[in-house]
Every structure is written in C-alpha cells, then in structure tokens.
Automatic annotation (TrEMBL):
Protein name in the entry: Abnormal spindle-like microcephaly-associated protein
Residue intervals passing through the bilayer: none
Coiled coil regions in record: none
InterPro entries found in the cross-reference section: CellDiv_DevSignal_Domain, IQ_motif_EF-hand-BS, P-loop_NTPase
Organism: Miopithecus talapoin (Angolan talapoin)
Gene name tied to this protein: ASPM
Length: 160
C-alpha cells in the first residue's frame, strides 16, 4: 500500500517537473525566435533607409540637373524645390505606412506560427498524458480487483 502511494506521488512529481520543463522550453524557444525576427527586421529597416536615401538623393540630383538645364527663373526654381520637398515628404509618409504594414504582417505571421507550434505541442502532450492516465487507471483497477479477490479468498479460508 505504501509502495503504491509512493509510486503515485513520485509519478505526480515527475509529471509536474516535466510540465515545468516543457513550459520553460517553449518560453526559451519563443524568445529566441522573437529575437531572431527582430534582428532580421532591423537589418531590413536599415536596408530600406539606405535605399530610400539613395533614391531620394538621385531623384533630387536629377531634378537639380533638369533645373540647371532649363535655366528657370528663381521663382520657378523655388516653387519646384517646394514641390520636390512636398513629394519627398509624401513618399516618406508612404514608405512609413508600407514599413508599418510590413512589420505588422511579419509579426502577425510570426505569432500565428508560434501559436500553431504551441497548439501542436500541447496536443501531443495532452495525448501522451491521456494515454498514461488510462494506463494508470487500468493498472489501478487490476490491482484493486486482485486485492478484493485475495481478500475474498482469505475470508473463505477463514470461514472454513
């Protein structure tokens, strides 16, 4: 009887310890994946900024060359520069919106991937736990039946 109780207690503790290990592993894995995605995002953001700067500088240089070729008056040049600045600001705002949507998409995709992974792990773990629980219940019922039959035999022997 004491051995059975001890075995059940040790089994319970082992399952608790295993659950804690699984939780810790999930947290470590998700944190690492998040860090890796963040590093990738920073590199992507840096590359985007460089491309934007080069594009804007090239665009501005082209506008300046056109300006010099046409030899427009000062008023026209000022107006054109103002339009260029306005276009650059609009393009900058558009780039910010695109970056925001791209980042949100990647984060959402990453979240869904992590969620699917966690659900898959949880299903496997629950399936494993259910099988073990059924095995424990089966063993307990066989043991209890054996114990009752033995007690009945002892009672019959004592009665005769």
């Amino acid at each position: 009887s004491a051995v059975v109780i001890q075995a059940a207690y040790k089994g319970m503790k082992a399952r608790q310890h295993l659950r804690e290990k699984h939780k810790a592993a999930i947290i470590i894995q998700s944190t690492y994946r998040m860090y890796r995605q963040y590093c990738f995002y920073q590199k992507l953001q840096w590359a985007t900024k460089i491309i934007q700067e080069k594009y804007r500088a090239n665009k501005k240089k082209q506008k300046a060359l056109q300006h010099n070729e046409l030899k427009e008056t000062c008023v026209q040049a000022s107006f054109q520069d103002m339009n260029i600045q306005k276009q650059i600001q609009e393009q900058h705002q558009a780039a910010i919106i695109i970056q925001k949507h791209c980042k949100a998409f990647k984060i959402r995709k990453h979240y869904l991937h992590l969620r699917a992974t966690v659900v898959s792990i949880q299903r496997r773990y629950r399936k494993l736990t259910a099988a073990r629980t059924q095995a424990v219940i089966c063993i307990q019922s066989y043991y209890r039946g054996f114990k009752v039959r033995r007690d009945i035999q002892n009672m019959h022997r004592a009665a005769t």
